[in-house]
Amino acid sequence: MARVALVTGGSRGIGEAISKALKGAGYNVAATYHGNDEAAAKFKAATGIAVYKWDVAKFDDCKAGIARVEAELGPVDVLVNNAGITRDATLHRMTPEQWHAVIETNLTSLFNMSRNVIEGMRNRSFGRIVNISSINGQKGQIGQANYSAAKAGVIGFTKALAQENANKGITVNAIAPGYIATEMVRAVPEPVLQKIIATIPVGRLGEADEVARCVTFLAADDAGFITGSTLTINGAQYIAG
Ligand code: CAA
């Protein structure tokens, strides 16, 4: 039986590439989305991957959504916590709404999702959790106190959960992408984006597929000794110690 992989924010951007790569590697994939019905329908028609709509920032929605995925596809073996948003503003202009939206969607979602699969993974003595962090959680970023805090939190969460579940066949790892050519990055004002690209030694934005192939690597059955790590994919823009 194919393993079941659940990818949050799995119908667009980096998540879309991850969903497709996991399907290509033989997983039975479920992709969640929240806002964009049209993009999700298009994605489903093009890929045949099942899509589920819920808000990862809400615990009860995650609980009910995961129950539905498990009833339809089977127990979740691989969870990819990818869903994320930006609400960029310098702190002196940031609203409480911008702060909370990013913390809840990008960090609290990891609790909401992982909490609802971890007991099953522990009972079955197998699991793979891959959390998408960011270069900006490693180095901080102008205009992203909210996002940088959430993405740094993702790395701490990963390390704790890896240790808690290391003796249960479950690995928990983070990936810290740099600037990848997705809608999220293209929303950065053009002059600022050009300034950012100039600081990437490889000389270009990354591709979503380059992140996706690292997810399939970490999700594999034979990746059992890699846990608690953060895999950086940023074209040498920032080399974390
Ligand atoms: N890198 C380098 N310089 C930056 C910068 C960045 N990421 N963001 C802003 N700056 C610079 C601007 O170029 C500008 O410099 P100059 O005065 O020399 O022109 C200065 O900071 C002030 O910027 P703005 O004039 O744009 O000020 P603002 O108040 O109108 O807007 C801002 C501030 C909201 C931070 C806006 O600049 C912005 O959106 N910046 C991009 C922030 C960013 O990098 N977001 C990442 C989004 S992609 C992502 O999050 C995915 C991921 O994981 C990497």
In a few lines, what is going on in this structure?
The chain is α/β, with parallel strands linked by helices and 241 residues long.
Model description:
The protein has 241 residues and is α/β, with parallel strands linked by helices. It has one domain: Rossmann fold (3-Layer(aba) Sandwich), CATH 3.40.50. It has nine helices and seven strands; from the N terminus they run βαβαβαβαβααβαααβ. The radius of gyration is 17 Å and the shape is globular. The termini are far apart. The mean pLDDT is 97. Acetoacetyl-coenzyme A is lined by residues 86, 88-90, 134-136, 141-144, 147, 179, 184-185, 188-189, 192, 195-196. Acetoacetyl-coenzyme A (CAA) binds at residues 86, 88-90, 134-136, 141-144, 147, 179, 184-185, 188-189, 192, 195-196.
Q: Mind summarizing the main beta sheet?
A: 7 strands, parallel
Looking at the structure, the CATH topology is Rossmann fold
Kindly provide the radius of gyration, computed on alpha-carbon positions and rounded to a whole number of angstroms.
17 Å
Helix content: 40-55%
Number of helices: 9
* CA distance, first residue to last residue: 40 Å
CATH uppermost class = Alpha Beta
Bound molecules: acetoacetyl-coenzyme A
What class do helices, strands and sheet pairing give?
alpha/beta
